[in-house]
Amino acid sequence: MFQLDFKSGVPICDQIVNGFIKLKALGVLKGGDQLPSVRALASKFSVNPNTVQKSYAILEANGIIYSVKGKGSFISDDETSANAVLESAKREFIAAIKHATDLGLSTNEMINLIKQNSTAKEDT
Amino acid sequence: MFQLDFKSGVPICDQIVNGFIKLKALGVLKGGDQLPSVRALASKFSVNPNTVQKSYAILEANGIIYSVKGKGSFISDDETSANAVLESAKREFIAAIKHATDLGLSTNEMINLIKQNSTAKEDT
DNA sequence: TGAACTGTACTATTTCAATTAGTACAGTTA
DNA sequence: TAACTGTACTAATTGAAATAGTACAGTTCA
């Protein structure tokens, strides 16, 4: 399970969302896996249940999980979900490219930084 | 001159900082060029002078401009400044790479996105 | 010298999003 | 029925960002 950084300035809500996205991308969580209940996770993180619930709502809106009233929340297993995450990752990365370009970074420098820093696989 | 987006959620202060960094990276502003006075820019943007002053203080702390009491604020022309901007751009881009990796983007996909989206020059 | 600029410093107030707090309702399971 | 689950809603709190106002110090130029 991921951890929260209360000093980072990043909203708790977003950190929880990103935490589950990451766990799914890494394959730690797979389709059908049940998430902790809203109340259980809130208790574990010492955070308000409403904050967790908001995170779950965002995850569901993005098709990453699905929630069933009375049963719980589960990792969705359809391709759509994985694609949605990838597409949003691409959009965010493109924004980062534009920002770096604005600051004077060349394409070659960016590519070198990727080769030096990425722990991702060569192919997907 | 750049524009502000009051709806973006990005602090005004940061937008002003990034605006000048961008103008310098693009070569629109060069070493020795004088910036608008704190009060003039605040008036132009319909923003509080304190907000602009905070931006200038950040720019000066990063070596991008220098301020002289009673005279004004100027773009610094030493190499240190350009390097400082590049270094911070690199740090931000590395953070973006790690985030994208977390979300499941492969190195090849990232490199392709750069080739498709960057308007930066091949070399620096 | 003095008026009109410039940057800088400081405190108080306002504003707004994020979070917290509390309660309530509905569906599932045993 | 009891105990769990998600969901919905309003109100209060918190903290960062921005605003407001004032004051002081250095520069420029008539």
Strand runs of chain A, count: 2
Strand content of chain A: 5-15%
Rg of chain A computed from alpha carbons, rounded to a whole number of angstroms: 17 Å
| Averaged pLDDT of chain A | 90
Fold-level CATH name of chain A: Arc Repressor Mutant, subunit A
Gross CATH architecture of chain A: Orthogonal Bundle
The assigned structural class of chain A equals mainly alpha
CATH hierarchy, class of chain A: Mainly Alpha
State the shape of chain A: globular
- Uncertain residue ranges of chain A: none
Which pair of chains forms the biggest interface, and how many residues does each contribute?
A: A-B, 41 and 41 residues
Provide an overview of this structure.
The structure is a homodimer of 124-residue chains. Chain A has helices spanning 12-25, 38-45, 49-61, 79-102, 107-117, and strands at residues 65-68, 72-75. Chain A has 124 residues and is mostly helical. Chain A has one domain (12-117): Arc Repressor Mutant, subunit A (Orthogonal Bundle). Chain A has a two-stranded antiparallel sheet. In chain A, a hairpin with a 3-residue loop joins β1 and β2 (72-75). In chain A, α2 (38-45) crosses α3 (49-61). The radius of gyration of chain A is 17 Å and the shape is globular. The two termini of chain A are 24 Å apart. The mean pLDDT of chain A is 90. Chain A binds chain B through residues 18, 21-22, 25-26, 82, 85-86, 88-90, 92-94, 96-111, 113-115, 117-124, and chain B through 18, 21-22, 25-26, 82, 85-86, 88-90, 92-94, 96-111, 113-115, 117-124. The first copy, chain A, binds a DNA duplex (30 and 30 nucleotides) through residues 9, 11-13, 37-39, 47-51, 53-54, 56-57, 67-73.
